[in-house]
Amino acid sequence: MKLLQASSAALVAMALCSALYAYQRTADFGFGDDDSQSNTPAEFYWSRLSYTAGTGSSFGSYGGWGGYGGYGYGGTWSRDYPKADRQVLLAMKRLTRIQGRSTEQVVNLDSDDIFNYPWVYAVQVQTWSFTDEEAKRLREYLLKGGFLMVDDFHGSADWEEFMNGMREVFPDRPVEDLDNKDEIFHVLYDLDERMQVPGEQYIRTHRTYEKDGYVPKWRAIRDDKGRIMVAICHNMHLGDAWEWADDPEYPEPFASMAFRVALNYIVYGMTH
Amino acid sequence: MQAAGTRFRYMFQFFFKYPIPVFSKGQFVLLGAWPGWVLLLLIVACMSALALLIRSRLPQAAPKISKWRAGAVWLLQSLLIATVLVLLWQPAITVAELAPQQNVIAIVMDDSRSMAIADSGSDGKLTREAAAAKVLEGGVLAGLQKKFQTRLYRLDSKVAPAVKLDEIQPSASSTHINDGLKQLASETSDLPIGAVVLLSDGSENSVDGSGDLDLETINVLRNRRIPVHTVGFGKEQAAHDLEVNDVRVAFRAMADSRIPATVTFHQRGYAGSKALLVVRDGNKTLGSQEITLGPDGSTQVATMFFSPGGAGAKSLHFSLGPLAGEENLQNNSVTRLLGVTDDKRRILYVEGEPRWEYKFIRRAEDDDKIVQVASMLRTTENKIYRQGISDPKELENGFPVRPEDLFSYQGIILGSVEAGYFTPLQQELLREFVDRRGGGLLFLGGRFSLGDGGWGGSGVADLLPTILPKSRTTFHRDPATAELTAAGADSPITRLMDDPAKNIERWKKLTYLMDYQDAGTPKPGATVLAQVNAGQRKLPLLVTQNYGRGRTALMATSGTWRWQMSQPLGDMAHDMFWQQLLRWLVLDSPGQVVASAPAHTLMDDGRIQLSASVRDKDYMPAPDARVTAHFMGPDGISVMVDMAPAPDNPGEFRAAWTADKPGSYLAEVTAQRGAGEPVKGAEKSRGGSEDLGTDVLPFERIDGVAENFHTVQNRDLLEKLASETGGRYWKPEELSRLPNEISYSDAGISVRDIKELWNMPVVFLLLLLLMSAEWLLRRKWGVV
């Protein structure tokens, strides 16, 4: 009995400590009062979308602004987080004139705070789902000029799941395949020759695809003036390429391509 | 009041023997043989002797005569002696008087349409013209003809002789008093004109539109010493009327823009009432605004915004009212001509780093069909990303280094880019772009902008509308709210709502800016349209100024993009603001050929003085150009006129032309240089000549409208004309004395007459008054 009581007390204490830690982590990503690098205002914030996962292994995990860290950290939205984000930010700082914060920003669709971050990155989007309010907010975000890049979902089943969420946002807007002439592939680097960028599993399997996603799909949803609002990177895993770019076993061409794509998409999002 | 004035003049002449003009125009003289100083000495001596005598006898008279009573007696006796002494010196007035039957009196009668208004005569039912004729025929004309020769003239847009009064009918469409009097003075230079009698309501509506006398007219009349006696007809103020005084609106506008019009008006009899101000293009209403009318007689100003629509020459009809019971409904509206252009205007946007402000400014301009933004963005240290370029070679080598390349743009935006990015030559080009080319330059806030970008110490610091702080840490990524200044409340740049008060409130509701920059102190002549609340401080946010032929502005933030992202979807505040700011930046940037005229709406007078400023590709004056004006008008009018270089202004060309028929006209000015044959319009030059450009100026002639305005008697103008020329303003009922008083003039053939003053009744009254006063005082004090 005493053992049970002690175990319970320890569990409660651990839960409280975890909650406190989560709160502190979350505060680090806002405009808090401290002067840490995480709070330095900048022009560009690598913003990762935290969303409610409707399917998949992390069903129900959600956090985001003010509370993701306690139980949401580790959900599908945070795949490769935060190392992938910071690796991209390093590349962006080195290779462009964009003044970005060196740490990432987590955003969600629960509040209007997302409107302060006009460029958002989301992964594992086959698991996302939106409430009506969230879908409306994301729709308005994109129509006002926000830019969304999605990555790391593979195969036809994932595509259907992704589109289920996307149709809540834009029921009628078509998804189109981007051709090589599209401005997004030339805004910074000329990316006429693109390959399928595999995830870290390539080191073990030497397969560039996952599930039945054999061919990389470079797709987009445009606004009424033809500007890309949602850039869709299907059947590839750019996030892993950024994250594992410093792994000697991960092929450099994949990492280089992934960085170039990221920088092109960022510059496109900041110019169109 | 009129009777009182007449009685006063009658009484004056009774007591002083002569009419007022004798004294106002004559000179006082003493006809006595002895000099004036002797008179003065004698008066002083007599007063002193009298004082000594009274003082010596004062003790005997006390206590009945105190000191002050003795003083009063001394004063009265001294005045009496002084008056008698002055009379002994024979005072008189010498005055110039027109020689009988040797001078001509020009009787000028206004025959414009406003003289047909029936508000004159004793019963107020006679037309002004009839009342004038009645007064003349009632003895005034005969009285004048006894002493002088008279000549009758009619006055409208010019003066013309008339033989009889009844041939003058009030039907002319304009009244040009200035021009008419100048013409009269010129045409009668060989005649001994003794005076001019002008019978008019004073409704001057000359081409210049000022409605006032011009100095030249006054000088011409003064040089000939011709007094103008004015006789005013018509009511001096209306009982119930609303009149539009003027409408000021730009001559040119961009298609699909929203532009302001400033309407001045006044009313009588409707204080506190509401009236609707409407602007129409044909049958299409472009805008309306409800106005609350102010106090009677006071001039009110209202600014209304409207959208003139698509490209073309628009004849805009501004109307106010009408209100119930108005006496004159024809003065409630005016017409103005507006040239609306859809010519593309191009802006070069130089941005030093990818940032959100760049993106959202470009997006705002995507919706503007007129203004196109060509941008060069430094994405990396070695890469420039170009957007909005018209051909692959545009900006291929970065920022232009040749004037003809840079000057092809109408505006420039400098984003977050340091001054050092530009070579000294390019900085000089920037200055010339504004100063010589007449372009617009906008500085944005940012990490490398304004003070942080070293612009304060650069070669183009003069262009900045503020004196930048010396610090290089003026850019702050801290939230700040924006608010309008008084100047910004009704500025077309910052207009988010038409009503200035609502506009101020609208700006206060905008979400905060992501950052701000300390832009320093506005320079004299600069206008601060908006400011930011940065903590406890208010800093200039949007400042504009004119510089040379162009204009510059700064927007000390890079955070307006948040207005777009954080305002509700569909809120147009961000896009409207940037579109209006950038349109302001380029609207007045001239082309190489700019045609202009003093007025675009000609009222009753078709004379137009066309000017053209012609410059080459570097925007240097081109005095060697061949410039032609092609006038096109109603009924197929098509006339080519060569424009002559203005000797005092290189690159300026002028031509005078007259639009004989009412209607809408176009003046197409084409300039070329070189040996080729002149070609018309947009055709390519040939034969080796250089086509410098073309500009089209719309104008219109409207007849018969001017007389609908200012229909009450303009007494101020008539009084001013009379007093400036030595004449007098007369009311019709006083005019019977005109034949006598008009004689006192040194115009024409005159003689100087001496009018002795000793026998004026007022002198004897004065002597009697002085003696009686002393006697009465002595009686009162008991010393008689």
How would you describe this protein?
The complex is a heterodimer of chains A (272) and B (784). Chain A contains 8 helices and 9 strands. In chain A, the strands form 2 sheets. A 7-stranded mixed sheet of chain A has the order 3-1-4-6-9-8-7. In chain A, strands 2-5 form a two-stranded antiparallel sheet. Chain A has 272 residues and is an alpha/beta fold. The termini of chain A are far apart. Chain A has a single domain (42-269), classed as 3-Layer(aba) Sandwich (Rossmann fold). Helix content of chain A is 37%, strand content 14%. In chain A, helix 4 packs across helix 5 (155-169). Chain A has helices at 2-28, 68-71, 83-95, 132-144, 155-169, 202-205, 238-243, 252-269; strands spanning 47-50, 52-53, 105-108, 119-123, 128-129, 147-151, 176-177, 217-222, 228-234. Chain B has 784 residues and is of the alpha+beta class. Chain B has 5 domains: 2-17 and 32-89 and 759-781, no CATH class; 100-236 and 712-749, von Willebrand factor, type A domain (Rossmann fold), CATH 3.40.50; 250-341, Immunoglobulins (Immunoglobulin-like, Sandwich); 345-587, Class I glutamine amidotransferase (GATase) domain (Rossmann fold, 3-Layer(aba) Sandwich); 593-703, Macroglobulin (MG2) domain (Immunoglobulin-like, Sandwich). In chain B, the strands form 9 sheets. In chain B, strands 20-19-18-21-22-30-29-28-25 form a 9-stranded mixed sheet, with helices on both faces. In chain B, strand 28 and strand 29 (537-547) form a beta hairpin. The longest helix of chain B is centred in the N-terminal third of the chain and has 26 residues, at 36-61. Chain B is elongated, with a radius of gyration of 37 Å. Chain B starts with a helix and ends with a helix. Classes of the chains: A alpha/beta (272), B alpha+beta (784). The A-B interface holds A 41-44, 95-99, 112, 115-116, 118, 140-141, 143-146, 187-188, 225, 227, 266-267, 269-272 and B 352-356, 358-360, 362-363, 366, 377-381, 383, 385, 387, 447, 477-478, 514-515, 558, 561-562, 564-566, 568-569.
